[in-house]
Amino acid sequence: MRLRNRLRLLGVAGLALFTVSASLPPATASGAGQERHPSGGGLSAVIRYTEYGIPHIVAKDYAQLGFGTGWAQAADQVCTLADGFLTVRGERSRFFGPDAATDFSLSSAATNLSSDLYFRGVRDSGTVEKLLKAPAPGGPSRDVKETMRGFAAGYNAWIAQNRITDPACRGASWVRPVTALDVAARGYALAVLGGQGRGIDGITAAQPPTAAPPAAGVTPEEAASAAKRLLSAQNADMGSNAVAFDGSTTVNGRGLLLGNPHYPWQGGRRFWQSQQTIPGELNVSGASLLGATTISIGHNPDVAWSHTVATGVTLNLHQLTLDPADPTVYLVDGKPERMTKRTVSVPVKGAADVTRTQWWTRYGPVVTSMGAALPLPWTATTAYALNDPNATNLRMADTGLGFSKARSTKDVERSLRRNQGMPWVNTIAADRAGHSFFAQSQVLPRITDDLAERCSTPLGRATYPASGLAVLDGSRKDCALGSDRDAVQPGIFGPGRMPVLKNQPYVENSNDSAWLTNADRPLTGYERVFGTIATPRSMRTRGAIEDVASMADKGRLRVADLQRQQFANRAPAGELAASEVAKWCAALPGGTAVGTGGTPVDVSDACAVLRRWDRSVDSGSRGALLFDRFWRKTSAVPAAELWRTPFDPSDPVRTPRGLNTAAPGVGRALADAVAELRAAGIALDAPLGKHQFVVRNGKRLPIGGGTESLGIWNKTEPVWNAAGGGYTEVSSGSSYIQAVGWDDSRCPVARTLLTYSQSENPKSPHFSDQTRLYAGERWVTSRFCEKDIARSPDLRVVRVHERR
User: Secretion signal: which residues (predicted)?
Assistant: First the structure.
């Protein structure tokens, strides 16, 4: 069977090498004249485009696969890619000015100058080059490096042979050729996103103290609260749901997987969909983060996998004891060590270069803050260094390539154990044979609870229990992180210490810790840095567990059941609270509640609206918007006051519950929500989609789903603009969705949806086509096997080629 499939692939690819369609895919139409008759040698690939601009890339080796991927990504996303390459070169200030804000795609840097100082420092120090030279598995494999080389060549070939039509960068001088090093540096930026990338402003601003009074710090209690907010997955612009069902729950004994990552809808952390094929070697379909050369989330003939943002804390701090005579010298076991100066110069638009010094230690860079709420002052006696083990991790692509070639969930686990390259995500997988798999296999600093107990500073004794952020005594060698024998690098946990759960009726994660991956078989025994045990779960986790446990109990599941779950749009918070609010509201004297500032508001109409609301957030749901605006405002009510029945670790899915309508903030939240909607001219019972929408090419598309606090599986984080009619854009939420199973054929049964579509170019036909599907809760039927690709009514075959 495999030989026959291989011969079929070779036949189709061979035909495509000599047959170029009369016109290129619309995204590349401006270059059609050149592409009909490519000249020269070099790298090439065949791209078959099917509906919605999804490319199926066929190549004879990894370099050529990278070439086709780089070409096709540039065709859809050249401006966003070029912007990211500018970032990792440290050249944003040169073209956009030093004070402008970044889009936060590749770091938390607040300004272009801060971003440039960091990334130019990475470039000047040769950090990525050193990682590229490290032998696998410590460094990237030859195959991955070949995809990077090919990606750069494919991107460069596209910009050389095509006219850019996207207004975001049309005619821009900053769209320039790139190198394989640029491609690798983009991957590096993603790896350190949760570590050094989170502290860039504090790294680039860190300077030795002067005679001026030092910046004010915070109390340990304030630091604990700030760290908890900083590191909470539920407060980030990235999250996810994923569930894998094993064969005991399905109609045919095979596995099922539903992946629903929640990522930004704009910018450099968008997904991009494709199929990658090297006949006889690789055949995988799914989505890649922009700039990635391999599939990030996807499926092949036998395995499907997805990721969820994990709770593991990917950094820690070391509190340094400084030499009283020199604040750039710190003491370790009483012996002085001088900090390393890294002097970085950044070109700036319309001004002289800016030169700054960064300070580095054996633990990492000195950092003076982790966000505005967590200052870490550098004084005459104390400084803080940030340790990020992902700063030596360029293994993410190899881990993903291992998934792409896997034939079972065991192979997924083998790739995780061998490559150890996932920086900030969990992995959930299912396979054709009916296995389910979950692993919180992250690159984490090796902070054991024992080490934290022995070595935490007073600050760390507050932050570690609250958030998992360890602050260790950097003056003691016995507080070093140590190593595990099975770890691929020193100072991280080896695979044997990771939370793993296999072959259960379901394994599910919605960005809480691994504890309730399966509520009937809680995972325990891991260190605090991985996440918490026996603590309250998010509303989304609670709703998800209720849903998937019910599905597993029902059994005989099919892919269609996964599709229904994705768009069920059940609001767990509404089921817990709406009826009680409606009843309380109806009993108010005169139907009046007191809003912010003591203003009385007539809320009587809201009572019936909330009572009749169907407790869902479909675009047609009436009352959903009112409850959404009310529920957001209850976030000001302390959790201890909001519920009558507190959290019970023996009943974690059903507690806390019982809305405490007597809490003063509840009535104020309802009054404020009603006043807000009336002031905006929005009816309290208006259908959600009338006021939760996106505009694409002048057309409104109603969007269902809801915000994090409502507990919706189909998470939508919309942007409120009362003057514009309500929620008028989506900042983040459901992105690349896949529902995958298997039958007795060799073709997976897969349905996919890229919510924001393939291209950010408003002139592309694939700017909003899948967004229209998402608005209508419709799916794309995956064309994975050759017979299905060949039957596509939109099939266009093109050979892309490097010129010489």
Answer: 1-29
